[in-house]
Design brief:
By secondary structure, this protein is α/β, with parallel strands linked by helices. The protein has helices at residues 17-21, 25-28, 71-84, 118-131, 147-161, 175-183, 201-210, 233-242, 328-364, 386-391, 411-428, 440-443, 451-460, and strands spanning 139-144, 166-170, 188-191, 216-221, 250-255, 278-282, 294-299, 308-310, 315-317, 369-371, 377-381, 395-397, 400-404. The protein has a seven-stranded mixed beta sheet, with helices on both faces. A four-stranded antiparallel beta sheet has the order 10-11-13-12, with helices on one face. A two-stranded antiparallel ribbon has the order 8-9. The longest helix has 37 residues, at 328-364.
């Protein structure tokens, strides 16, 4: 019930990675891939006719009237263009998954070579800019190779803007945040967390006041890795204000790897209308892209601090990786266009409902369990059998395990998981003759179902 299920969430019909990989360049342009497309009407510029034109793409909303070409038509045109260019590229190419697509340099600047997908990349970036409430001419971003790269980029921006700033991050922050502090030789402060994994704002306040002579670079976790806890951005901003930090003395990076695609459909927590500096998400998590990727968005006014002119690619570059996978923007664009905001909103609601369903079922069976608000990560007592953990792909820390209830997970799967867990627990704890461990320290006394806290809960009720 872990990483292996993430691929189930990506359902790009009729295009799928497996079918594309098996096709030849010419067959991709044929009607058997996209039967509703009349290939006789497709016009492709002759090879060698100069750099191809920008496709001027945008993410489409399903169900709304669209006067432009269909998704299939756009992809056929794009594939035809690449096919025509095969003879001018020193590689053995096959459609999409076998094309050497390299999005090198700034996404908003064209390359000297045509084998890129920056058209799709910019369309994806525009979609996220709208989601997080920042105007097109006010933002900059790129499709990354994953959430870690987004964190490295966001924190580097903060360091460049505030060179003597101190990085503040909760102990439940993703490990890449502390990796960034080491890589950039930054002073850092680790902030305590409450039992649910959320930042301890009193500890943040105390440490901000201790270092008031230096700017603050704050990592805000929107969905912690193990417990799914969400740091309260508004409380953090209020704390900065109360501690005397003006907006030119702090930089906020939002690590929203999992929840950045969820919270906008529940509340407007993530918004560039607030004084934040950057947001990153992972495309292979909630959206379910079949390969690691992410999206990083920041303010356009900040990016000059990182931009370097690179003559041999005829572009400036402000990214971490430079060369980037040109396939991932296409997968992201296609998935966003087929799901749309309504589809994603439905996914969010279904996942939240299913997470609560799983939590309630486990609780009813007398199993220690915790679920944070607005989270799809259900934390439970660690199963005692390694084979059970391996079979269900559970991630474990200390006496805890967690289940991430993604869009591809059904209630039938959750029922099967609970049924097997209940049966196995009877063996582990010899039908009640042995006791399950107390996990109150890990998930809170109110969520612990050990014999002591179960009795305490009954009496307090």
């Amino acid at each position: 019930m872990g990483s292996l299920l993430l691929e189930m969430d990506f359902e790009p019909s009729p295009m799928s990675p497996r079918s594309l990989a098996a096709m030849t360049p010419r067959s991709l342009a044929r009607r058997r891939l996209f039967p509703n497309v009349d290939n006789k009407k497709q016009k492709v510029a002759p090879p060698g006719a100069g750099p191809r034109k920008n496709l001027q793409l945008e993410v489409m909303e399903p169900g709304l009237k669209n006067d432009g070409p269909s998704l299939d038509t756009i992809l056929v045109n794009y594939l035809d263009t690449l096919t025509q260019r095969v003879n001018y590229h020193l590689a053995t190419l096959a459609p999409l998954l076998q094309f050497h697509l390299n999005n090198c340099g700034d996404p908003f600047l064209q390359n000297t070579v045509d084998f890129h997908s920056k058209d799709f990349e910019v369309a994806v970036l525009n979609w996220f800019a709208q989601l997080w409430e920042i105007e097109k001419d006010q933002y900059w971003g790129y499709v990354t190779n994953g959430g870690t790269e987004g964190n490295l980029h966001g924190i580097l921006l903060g360091r460049e803007l505030l060179p003597d700033g101190i990085l503040y991050a909760s102990k439940d922050s993703h490990y890449s945040v502390f990796k960034a502090a080491r890589m950039y030789r930054m002073d850092s402060e680790t902030i305590n967390t409450s039992v649910n994994g959320e930042m301890d704002y009193s500890d943040l306040r105390a440490k901000l006041l201790q270092n008031k002579d230096k700017p603050a670079i704050i990592n805000v976790t929107i969905g912690s890795t193990f417990k799914g806890a969400i740091d309260d951005l508004d409380v953090i901003l209020e704390t900065l204000k109360d501690c005397g930090y003006s907006q030119d003395k702090f930089y906020i990076h939002c690590d929203a790897a999992l929840c950045g695609l969820m919270t906008p459909f529940v509340n407007n927590m993530i918004s560039f209308k607030k004084p934040i500096g950057s947001v990153t998400i992972s495309g292979h998590k909630f959206l379910g892209c079949p390969m690691p990727c992410g999206v990083q968005i920041t303010r356009k006014s900040y990016i000059n601090n990182l931009s370097t002119n690179v003559e041999y690619i005829a572009s400036v570059d402000a990214t971490i990786s430079g060369s980037r996978n040109g396939l991932t923007p296409i997968f992201l664009w296609y998935s966003l266009s087929t799901k749309g905001q309504i589809g994603l909103q439905n996914d969010v609601k279904r996942c939240l409902d299913n997470a609560k369903y799983l939590k309630d079922r486990l609780q009813k069976e007398g199993i220690s369990v915790m679920l944070n608000e607005l989270s799809i990560i259900v934390v439970l007592e660690r199963p005692r059998d390694h084979e059970f953990v391996r079979r269900w792909q559970l991630s474990c820390v200390k006496d805890m395990a967690h289940v991430i209830v993604m869009p591809g997970i059904t209630r039938e799967m959750l029922d099967n998981f609970v049924s097997e867990l209940v049966q196995q627990r009877k063996q582990w704890y010899r039908d009640g003759k042995a006791e399950a461990p107390c996990v109150a320290e890990d998930i809170g006394a109110q969520n612990c179902a050990c014999s002591y806290h179960k009795i305490d809960y009954i009496f307090s009720s």
